[in-house]
Amino acid sequence: MAFAVGDTKRWWWPDQEGDYYWPKRAPREESVQGFARAFRTRGYRPCESADLEPGFEKVALFVYTRTTLLTTKGSPSHMARQQRDGMWVSKLGEEEDIEHASLEAVAGDYYGRVEVILRRPRRKRG
Q1: Residues of 61-75 as b/e, b for ≥16 C-beta within 10 angstroms?
Q2: Calpha distance 66→56 (Å, rounded)
Q3: Would residue 76 count as lying in a domain?
Q4: Which end of the chain is less crowded, N or C, counting CB atoms within 10 A of the terminal residue's CB?
């Protein structure tokens, strides 16, 4: 989750023990609403489309599509960030970062489906 917002120093997760970073103004809950509020603290707001929009950076929140011993259907599973050229990047846990042309490229049994797209004005380079 931290990778999506550009934080390369900390691991973000709303665990109840507080072992991981989570924005103070967001509820420590593994829910779509909790994640949206956490990203709101960084300037992101919900939007309708994953399409590239000049002047905005976007992130996509994935949710699990089924319940297993380790997952709960509808809970956050993964995030991807859109780059300036429209390609998406994802961090695969502690593994490698990957680039993918579409959100569907990482959707499926492991990460589930995209539940919400968030965007914020892109920061000017300088």
Answers
A1: bbbbbeeeeeeeebb
A2: 32
A3: yes
A4: C
Amino acid 123 reads R
126 in a structural domain: no
Q: CA-CA distance, 110 to 71, in Å (whole number)?
A: 10
In sequence order, what are the beta bridge partners of 119?
45, 58
Asked whether 30 and 71 are in contact (CB, 8 A), the reply is no
The two three-digit tokens of residue 84, written as one number: 């300036």
* Domains identified in the chain, total number: 1
What would the two tokens of residue 124 be?
A: 């000017």
State the pairing for strand pair 56-63/113-121. Answer: antiparallel
Mean pLDDT of the chain: 93
Residue at 108 is within a domain:
yes
Structural domain including 10 reads 2-121
Q: What's the pTM?
A: 0.91
Could you list the mean pLDDT of each consecutive 10-residue stretch along the chain, which spans 126 residues? Answer: 89 93 94 96 96 96 92 93 96 85 94 96 77
